[in-house]
Design goal:
Chain lengths: 287, 311, 347, 284, 347
C-alpha cells in the first residue's frame, strides 16, 4: 500500500490527454498561422538560390526602398517615443480629470483602418484637401512625398510607445519619484536618473514594436505614397511592386528582409523579457 | 539635370522601363541634358486619383481615356480637349483583349460564348479599379450585343452571366494574372494582349497558351501631358518630347517589342505577324469613354447592378 | 528644527483627511503619530515633508514658513513605508543619490561622497552590502538603506511612514531598538507614523494620537497610557475590558464595588469604565469590595497567565504573572475580582 | 502678504509634487491633436457636402452593407477563433514546460512585426488551391483563399498575438493557491477551470478579443491578397473605401470610413460594458 | 480524525525541506507548527492537506493511509495564508463553493446550501456581509470568510497556513481568541502554521517546533516554554539574553553568581545560559549573589518598564512591572541583578 510512487502537485495539473490536446491545439494553431507563412516567405525568397536573393536586395530600387523605410522610421519612431514618454508621464504620474478620455483617444488610431489613416491625410493635404491648396501654393508637398509617408506612419504607430509605458509607469507608482524629489533632485534629474532607468526595458520594447510596425505598414502608406519607383516606395510597397512584376523571388527576398527584421525584434524582445522579466511583466502588453 | 514623372498603369512596367532609358539617351543626345525619368505604376483608376490628389506627374500614360477625362474633370491639370493634342486620339499604341488558357486548352475555350458556360471559371480584375478590366467588360458586351444585332439587353445579360463565372476579382490586371498563373485559379484569364504575351514569356510557355476570340475591342491606352504641372515645374518641353517620342519609329519599335500594337502604319505592318488578326470594334460603339464610363462603371451603373443581391 | 503646525487642513474632494491640526514638535524630539487606518497620519506626514500641500493652515520649520516650500528646501528626509528604494541602483548609489543631485555648489567631490556614504552605511550596519541591489536585501535591510538614504543629505527633520509596517514581528522589534539608538546618536528631529500602539509607546518621546483627521491627545508614552484623554485614546491604547459604571463620590462604582479612577473624573452619573487586564487581581471568592466571577479559560503564555473571566455574562480579560500567582486556578472555578484602577469617561 | 504671493500660495497649494505636468501634457495634447484629431476631423467633416441623407444613402448601399457585414463578421469570427486558440496557447506557455518554449513564446508576436502585405501574400501562397495547405484542403472541397474563409484566415493571423498577450500575464499572476483551494473543496479540474480560473481570466480574454477585433475590422494589406474581393461576397469594407476613392467618390469613401468608425466604437463600447460587468467584483 | 505522521520526507532537488518527521496529532486537538522561515512548516502542512506528496514516509488520517490520497478524499479544509478567496464570487458564493462542487449524490439542494452557508456566516459573524465581494472586505474579514469556506464541507481536519500572518497586530489578536472559540465549539482537529511564538503559545493545545525540516520539540505551550529541549527552542521562544556560564554543583555560575537551572542540567563545564527578561530582579547595588550592572535605558511600555542593562559590556534586557517597582531608577545608575532562573545548554 505504501509502496506508492511519489507524485507532486497532482491537484494543479490536467489529465495527460487534456494536456496533450491543449498542446496540440496551441502548437498546431501557431504552426499553421505563424510557422508556415514564415517558412513560405523564406522558401520563395531562396527558390533561385542565395545569389538571386542577394541580388534582389542590392538592386537600386530595393536599396532606395530600404533607405526610405529607414528614413520614415527614423523620423516617426523618435517622435512617437517623445510623445509616448510625455503622455505616460502625464497620465501615470499625475491626476487630472478626463484621464480615461485621453487614454481612449490615444488608443483611437489603433481601431482605425489603415486605409482610413492614409485617407485622412489625403483629405487634409491632397490637392483638393483642406490644407492642400494652400501648402501647394507655398511649394510644400506632403502627400505623395516623404512627409505624407511619415505622417501616416506616425498615425499608425501612434499608441505603441505610450501604450507600453503607461501601464508600466502606473504599476511603478510615484514612490521613487517622490523619494528622489525629497532628496533634492530636480524634475529632469528625477526623470533621467530614476524614472528612465526603471522604464528603460519597457521603453526599448515599445520602440522595437513601434519600429517593426513603422517599417511594415502597408495599407496607410499605400494610400499616400504615389508609388514612384525609387522615390516614394517603402519596402512593403516595393514588395507589392516586385510581386506585380512577376519577380516573385525578389518580392519575397525583400519581404524576408522585413521578416528577418521582425524576427530580430522578437528575439531582442524575448531576450529582454528573459533578463528583465519582472520589470516588463507589469505592462499589459497590448498593442 | 531634369526630372519628369510618368504616372502609368500596371501592364506598362516593362515597356516604360526600356522606353525611358531610350528617351533619356535620345534627350541627352539632342539637348545634352541629363534626364531622370521616374515612373509610378498601379491600377489605372488609382493612378488617376493620385494625380488628382496631387501626385506631381508631368505625363500620364493610363489604360483608358476616361481616367484622363477624370483628371481633366476633377482638377485643372489639363484641359478637357486633351485627347486632341496628340495624334491618333493621343493613343500612341493600341492593344486588345485576348484569352489566356492553360496549356492544351483543357476546357476547349474558343470564343466568348465558351466563357459563360456553366462550370467555366473566368479571371478578370475588377472594372471598378482596373482599366484593363473595363476593356474586358466592354469587349464581352460588344461581342454579345453585336451577335444579337446590337441589343444592349443581350450585352447586359452576357456580362451578367460572365461575371457569375468570376471567382476572384483582383484590383488590377497584374493581380489577376498572378491569381490565374501562380495560384492556378480559373480556366481562362481575360487579359490585355500584351499581358498575355508577357505572361507566357515570363511565367512559362509550357503552362499557358493564348486563345484569340473572333471579335474583340480595340483598346486605346491614351497619354497626356499635365499642363499645369509641367508649366509650374518648367518641364513642358521635355514632357511633350517624351510623349512625342512614343510616336517615333524608335518608340513604336519598343511598343511593339512589348506587344503593344504600333500605330505608325509601316511598323504596324512590320509587326503584323506578331499580332493575331482579330476583328476589332472600338469605344465609339459605346458612345465614347465619357458615356461608357457613366453608363457602366460609375456608382450605380450597370456593373453595380450585376452585383445587386438576389441576382 | 522644531516644527509648528497650525490649523493644518487637507481635503480630498469634500472629505477632510486632516482637519485643522495643531501640533508642536520640539527640536530633537522623536514624535510618533499614532492612529487607526485612515485617521490621516500619512497625509499629515506628507504635508510636513512637502509631498502634499495643505488647503489651510501653516507649517513652520524652525520658525520659517514652510507651508508651500519644496521638499528639498525644507531639508527633510523622508522614509517611505515601502522604502521606495531605487531598484536600479546599488545600496551605495541609493544612499549617494541625494548628494549627487545636491544643488550645493561647489559639487560635493566623489571622495567626499564615498566617505559620507560609507560612514552612513557603517552606521546602519550595511557597509559590507554596499554593492548589492535592493532586491537582494531582506525587508529589514531595505528599511535601513532607506533610512541611510534619507540621512545622507543631513536633513533637519526625519520623517518615517510606518517604518516597520512591512516587516515581520521579530525584525520589527530589532529595528525599533536600532532606530532609537540612531535617533539618540544623531539627535535629529524625527516624526514617525505607526498604527502599532506598542511601537509608538516603546519608541517615541511623545505620541500624538490621531482620529478622523484630528488630534485626540499629545503626550509622553506614560502620559497617554496612564491618563488617556478620551475614551477613544483609552480604547486604542489597549484600554482593556469596557464596563458600565456609575460615577459617585469621586469613584466609579461597578457592580457594587468602588474602583479608583486614575483619569479626570467625569461628572456624577452613568459612565463607561475601562479596566486593563493588568489591573485586575484575583482574590478568593466572597472578599469584600470585589466582584464575583467565574474562570472560563486559563492560558499560560510565556511568563504570563491569561484568563478569560465571566463577569455577569461579560468576558473580562485578566493577565497575571505566572510565577507570582499563588492561587491554584482551574476553569469553572468561582473567584473574586479586585479592580485596581479604571479609566472612566462620560457614557 | 501681497496679492501676488497670495495668488501663488493658492496656486501652489494645489499642485502635485511631481513636476512636468504642464510640459508633458502640452506635448501630449499637441501631438495628439496634430497627428490624430485634426486628420480624423478632416475625415468626419468630409461627407458634409452630401448631407446626412447622402451619407445614409452611401452606407446603406447593398454592397457597402455586405462589405461591412463581412468586415465585422469575419473580424468577429477571427477574434473568436483567437480567443479559443489564443487561450490554449497562453495556457500552454504559462502552465507547461516543453522544449523550445522560449522560441514559441517569441514567435507569438510575429504578426505584430510582419508587414501585413507580406503576410497576405504568404497566406495566399499557402492557402491557394495549389498552395502547401490548400492542395490538401481543395480535394475535401474546402476553399480558403478567395473566399470569406480566406478573410477569416488573414484576420486570425493579424489578431493572434492580442489574446495571447493579454491573457498570458493574467494567467501568470493567477495565484495557484486559488486552484489548490478549489481542489481542497472537492472541485474537479474541470470545475476548477470553469468556476475559478475562467471567471478571473475572462475580462482579460475579453480585452484581447476586443483588441483583436478592432485590429481586424480595419485590416487591409493582408486581406486583399487572399480575399478574392468579390462584391457582396468577399469584398471588405476598407477595400470598398479604396474603390470609392478610385471612383473619385471622396464623400462616399469618407462615409464608409465613418460608418466603420461608428460601428467599431459601438462594438468596443459594448465589449467594455461587458468587461466592466464581468469585473464587477473588482470595483469597490 | 487523528493524524499519524511517520518518517515523512519531502525533497526539492537535493534539499530536504521536510526531513523524516514523526508526529502524532490527536483527535480534536489544536496543534501549532512553529518554526523560523524556511523550516518546512508549509511543506509539512501541504503534505497533510494533500497539496504536495511525500517522497518518503506515510501519513495516516484516522488510521487510514492518506499518503497519496487526493485532497478532497482526505476531507481536509485548508485555509491559505493569503486567503485564496475567489475574487469573482460573493462571500456567500465563496462559502457555498465546496457544497456546489460536492461529488455527493444526490446534489445538495439549494435550500440546504443556503441554510448551511448562512449558519457558517453567522458563526464567523459575517452574515450581514454575505453579498460583498472579497475586495470589499478587510483583511480580518477575509480571513474569516476563508475559514468559513474551509469549514463548509465539514472537514475532518482543518489546516491553516499562517492564518493571521497578513493581518495587523490588533486584528491578529482579536482573531486569535475567535479561532480558539470556534475550535472549541466545533472540536475539529486543527493544525496551524505560524512563526509567531506568542501566537503559538497562546492558541495551541500543543506546539511542534520545527527547525531545518526536523522537529525539535513537541509539547504543550507550558512544557515547551518552561522546559525547552534545546538551545534552538529556548532561543526561538524568546530565550532572553544569552550569557556564558560554567555548570558546577548542580547550578550555573555566571560571573560568580549561582543561578538555578530549570531545564535538564548539562554535564559540568562551560555552557550557555539563557536568562529571560522577566526572570531578572533588580536589587540595590552590592547585594550578595548578584551581578553588578549599569542602567542604560529605561522605557515604560504600557504596564511594563523595559530596561537595557550593561553587564560587563553586554546588553541584558529586563522587564519589570511598572506598578510594582519600588526603586527609583534612572539611566546611568549602578544596580545589582538577581537572576531568578536560567535555561542552560552545552556550549
Ligand atoms: N490622494 C487621496 N485621494 C483621496 N482620498 C485620500 C487620498 N489620500 C488619502 N485619502 C483619504 O484620506 C484619509 C486619510 O488617509 P491617510 O492615508 O492619511 O490615512 P493613514 O492614517 O495613513 O491610514 P493608514 O494607516 O491606512 O495608512 C483616508 O480616508 C483616505 O482614504
Ligand atoms: N516548490 C519548492 N521548490 C523548491 N524549494 C522549495 C519549494 N517549496 C519550499 N521549498 C524550500 O523548502 C524549504 C521549506 O519551505 P517551507 O515553505 O515549508 O518553509 P516555511 O517553514 O513554511 O517558511 P515560511 O515561514 O517562510 O513560510 C525552504 O528552504 C524552501 O525554500
Ligand atoms: Mg498611511
Ligand atoms: Mg510557509
Ligand atoms: O492596370 S490595369 O488598370 O489595367 O489593371
Amino acid at each position: 500500500m505504501s509502496g506508492h510512487t511519489p507524485k507532486s502537485r497532482v491537484t494543479l495539473s490536467e489529465p495527460t490527454w487534456v494536456k496533450a490536446l491543449i498542446m496540440l491545439a496551441g502548437l498546431g494553431f501557431l504552426g499553421f498561422f505563424i510557422l508556415l507563412p514564415l517558412a513560405a516567405v523564406f522558401t520563395e525568397a531562396l527558390r533561385r538560390g542565395f545569389g538571386a536573393y542577394a541580388e534582389a536586395l542590392v538592386e537600386p530600387d530595393a536599396l532606395a526602398a530600404i533607405k526610405l523605410t529607414l528614413l520614415v522610421a527614423v523620423i516617426a519612431v523618435p517622435a512617437n517615443v517623445v510623445f509616448g514618454i510625455a503622455a505616460a508621464w502625464a497620465i501615470a504620474k499625475h491626476k487630472f480629470p478626463g484621464k480615461s478620455l485621453l487614454l481612449t483617444l490615444i488608443d483611437l488610431p489603433f481601431s482605425v483602418s489603415p486605409v482610413i489613416s492614409g485617407l485622412v491625410y489625403v483629405l487634409l493635404f491632397g490637392a483638393h484637401g483642406l490644407l492642400g491648396p494652400f501648402l501647394r501654393e507655398h511649394g510644400v508637398q506632403i502627400v505623395f512625398a516623404v512627409p505624407g509617408l511619415v505622417l501616416a506612419t506616425m498615425f499608425i504607430t501612434f499608441p505603441f510607445v505610450a501604450r507600453e509605458l503607461i501601464p508600466l509607469m502606473q504599476a511603478q507608482g510615484v514612490d521613487e519619484e517622490e523619494a528622489a524629489i525629497t532628496l533634492g533632485a530636480s524634475g529632469w534629474q528625477t526623470f533621467r536618473r530614476v524614472t528612465l532607468p526603471n522604464i528603460r526595458w519597457g521603453l526599448l520594447y515599445g520602440v522595437l514594436l513601434c519600429n517593426a510596425r513603422a517599417m511594415g505598414e502597408f495599407g496607410a502608406v499605400s494610400v499616400v505614397s504615389g508609388h514612384i519607383r525609387g522615390e516614394t516606395n517603402t519596402m512593403p510597397l516595393h514588395v507589392e511592386i516586385l510581386y506585380n512584376e512577376y519577380n516573385f523571388v525578389a518580392a519575397f527576398a525583400v519581404a524576408s528582409l522585413l521578416a528577418i527584421l521582425a524576427l530580430v525584434t522578437l528575439v531582442a524582445k524575448s531576450l529582454l523579457e528573459w533578463r528583465h522579466g519582472a520589470e516588463l511583466a507589469a505592462t499589459a502588453r497590448r498593442h | 539635370s531634369g526630372q519628369i514623372l510618368n504616372v502609368s498603369y500596371d501592364p506598362t512596367r516593362e515597356l516604360y522601363k526600356e522606353f525611358n532609358a531610350a528617351f533619356a539617351k535620345h534627350w541627352k543626345a539632342t539637348t545634352g541634358e541629363e534626364l531622370e525619368i521616374k515612373v509610378s505604376h498601379g491600377g489605372s483608376g488609382k493612378q488617376a486619383r493620385s494625380v488628382i490628389d496631387g501626385l506631381d506627374a508631368d505625363v500620364v500614360t493610363l489604360a483608358l481615356a476616361s481616367d484622363i477625362d477624370a483628371i481633366a474633370e476633377n482638377s485643372d491639370l489639363l484641359s478637357k480637349d486633351w485627347q486632341a493634342k496628340l495624334p491618333y486620339n493621343s493613343t500612341p499604341y493600341t492593344s486588345t483583349i485576348v484569352f489566356l488558357v492553360r496549356k492544351g486548352n483543357p476546357k476547349g475555350i474558343k470564343d466568348w460564348d465558351d466563357l459563360v458556360k456553366p462550370g467555366i471559371q473566368v479571371i478578370t480584375p475588377n472594372p471598378k479599379t482596373s482599366g484593363g478590366a473595363r476593356w474586358n467588360y466592354l469587349a464581352a458586351w460588344g461581342y454579345a450585343a453585336d451577335k444579337a444585332g446590337g441589343s444592349d439587353a443581350a450585352g447586359k445579360e452576357f456580362v451578367t452571366k460572365l461575371f457569375k463565372n468570376v471567382p476572384v476579382l483582383d484590383t488590377g490586371a497584374r493581380g489577376s494574372t498572378t491569381t490565374f498563373v501562380q495560384r492556378g485559379i480559373g480556366d481562362v484569364l481575360l487579359a490585355w494582349e500584351n499581358e498575355a504575351f508577357l505572361a507566357i514569356n515570363e511565367l512559362g510557355a509550357d503552362k499557358l497558351e493564348i486563345v484569340v476570340p473572333s471579335v474583340s475591342i480595340l483598346a486605346e491606352p491614351p497619354v497626356a501631358v499635365l499642363d499645369k504641372n509641367v508649366d509650374r515645374k518648367g518641364t513642358r518641353k521635355v514632357a511633350e518630347a517624351y510623349l512625342t517620342y512614343l510616336y517615333t519609329p524608335e518608340g513604336q519599335e519598343l511598343a511593339a517589342k512589348h506587344y503593344y500594337r504600333p500605330r505608325l502604319p509601316q511598323l504596324a505592318q512590320k509587326y503584323a505577324h506578331q499580332f493575331p488578326n482579330i476583328k476589332l470594334f472600338d469605344i465609339n460603339k459605346f458612345g465614347g469613354w465619357t458615356v461608357a464610363q457613366k453608363t457602366h462603371f460609375a456608382d450605380g451603373g450597370v456593373f453595380d447592378e450585376i452585383y445587386k443581391p438576389g441576382q | 528644527m522644531s516644527i509648528n503646525i497650525n490649523n493644518l487642513t487637507k481635503r480630498f474632494g469634500g472629505f477632510a483627511a486632516v482637519d485643522g491640526i495643531d501640533l508642536d514638535i520640539h527640536s530633537g524630539e522623536l514624535m510618533a503619530l499614532l492612529g487607526p487606518s485612515g485617521s490621516g497620519k500619512t497625509t499629515l506626514l506628507r504635508m510636513i515633508g512637502g509631498l502634499d500641500f495643505a488647503d489651510e493652515g501653516t507649517l513652520l520649520i524652525e520658525g520659517e514658513d514652510a507651508t508651500i516650500a519644496e521638499p528639498h528646501a525644507r531639508r527633510v528626509g523622508f522614509v517611505f513605508q515601502h522604502y521606495a528604494l531605487f531598484r536600479h541602483m546599488s545600496v551605495f548609489e541609493n544612499v549617494a543619490f541625494g548628494l549627487r543631485v545636491s544643488r550645493r555648489r561647489p559639487k560635493i567631490s566623489e571622495a567626499e561622497i564615498r566617505t559620507r556614504v560609507m560612514n552612513l552605511l557603517e552606521l546602519v550596519q550595511l557597509a559590507p552590502l554596499s554593492d548589492r541591489y535592493p532586491n537582494q536585501l531582506s525587508g529589514g535591510q531595505r528599511q535601513r538603506v532607506a533610512l541611510a538614504r534619507a540621512l545622507a543629505t543631513e536633513p533637519r527633520v526625519l520623517l518615517l511612514d510606518e517604518p516597520f509596517g512591512a516587516l515581520d514581528a521579530k525584525v520589527r522589534k530589532e529595528l525599533r531598538r536600532w532606530l532609537r539608538d540612531i535617533h539618540k546618536g544623531m539627535g535629529v528631529t524625527t516624526v514617525f507614523v505607526t498604527h502599532d500602539q506598542e511601537e509608538a509607546l516603546e519608541l517615541a518621546d511623545r505620541v500624538a494620537i490621531l482620529n478622523k483627521g484630528r488630534i485626540e491627545q499629545v503626550g509622553t508614552p506614560a502620559e497617554v497610557y496612564d491618563n488617556p484623554a478620551s475614551a477613544f485614546v483609552c480604547d486604542f491604547l489597549g484600554g482593556g475590558t469596557r464596563l458600565e459604571c456609575v460615577v459617585a463620590d469621586g469613584a466609579a462604582v461597578i457592580g457594587g464595588a468602588r474602583v479608583p479612577v486614575v483619569n479626570d473624573l467625569p461628572p456624577p452619573g452613568p459612565a463607561t469604565a475601562y479596566i486593563r487586564a493588568h489591573d485586575i487581581d484575583l482574590a478568593p471568592a466572597g472578599e469584600a469590595g470585589t466582584l464575583p466571577a467565574i474562570i472560563r479559560l486559563i492560558q499560560p503564555v510565556g511568563p504570563q497567565l491569561r484568563l478569560d473571566l465571566d463577569l455577569d455574562g461579560k468576558v473580562v480579560e485578566a493577565v497575571l504573572d505566572r510565577h507570582a500567582t499563588p492561587l491554584l486556578l482551574a476553569p469553572g472555578q468561582a473567584v473574586s475580582l479586585r479592580l485596581r484602577r479604571a479609566n472612566v469617561y462620560p457614557a | 502678504m501681497t496679492v501676488s504671493s497670495g495668488f501663488s500660495l493658492f496656486r501652489r497649494r494645489n499642485r502635485s509634487i511631481i513636476p512636468g505636468f504642464g510640459l508633458t501634457m502640452g506635448i501630449t495634447l499637441t501631438y495628439l491633436t496634430l497627428i490624430v484629431l485634426i486628420p480624423l476631423a478632416a475625415l468626419v467633416i468630409r461627407p458634409w457636402e452630401i448631407g446626412l441623407s447622402g451619407f445614409l444613402h452611401q452606407v446603406t448601399e447593398p454592397r457597402v452593407l455586405a462589405a461591412l457585414r463581412l468586415s465585422f463578421g469575419a473580424a468577429f469570427v477571427a477574434a473568436a477563433i483567437n480567443a479559443v486558440f489564443g487561450l490554449a496557447v497562453a495556457w500552454m506557455l504559462v502552465r507547461y514546460d516543453f522544449w523550445g518554449k522560449r522560441v514559441v513564446d517569441a514567435t507569438v508576436d510575429l504578426p505584430f512585426a510582419l508587414p501585413t502585405a507580406v503576410a497576405g501574400i504568404a497566406l495566399t501562397a499557402l492557402y491557394a488551391p495549389n498552395g502547401w495547405i490548400g492542395q490538401f484542403l481543395d480535394p475535401l472541397g474546402i476553399k480558403v483563399a478567395y473566399t470569406p474563409l480566406g478573410v477569416v484566415v488573414a484576420l486570425t493571423f493579424i489578431g493572434l498575438p492580442f489574446v495571447v498577450r493579454t491573457v498570458q500575464p493574467v494567467l501568470e499572476e493567477l495565484d495557484t493557491e486559488l486552484e489548490e483551494a478549489a481542489a481542497c473543496l472537492g472541485a474537479t479540474r474541470f470545475e476548477t477551470f470553469m468556476r475559478v480560473i475562467f471567471p478571473v481570466i475572462f475580462p482579460a480574454l475579453l480585452t484581447g478579443f476586443a483588441l483583436a477585433l478592432a485590429r481586424a475590422v480595419g485590416e487591409y494589406g493582408s486581406v486583399i491578397f487572399i480575399a478574392g474581393n468579390m462584391p457582396m461576397v468577399s469584398e471588405i469594407a476598407p477595400l470598398l473605401i479604396v474603390i470609392k476613392l478610385e471612383q473619385f467618390n471622396y464623400a462616399g469613401a469618407a462615409s464608409v470610413g465613418i460608418a466603420m468608425l461608428i460601428l467599431s466604437f459601438i462594438m468596443l463600447l459594448v465589449i467594455n460594458l461587458l468587461q466592466r460587468w464581468s469585473r464587477r467584483w473588482a470595483g469597490v
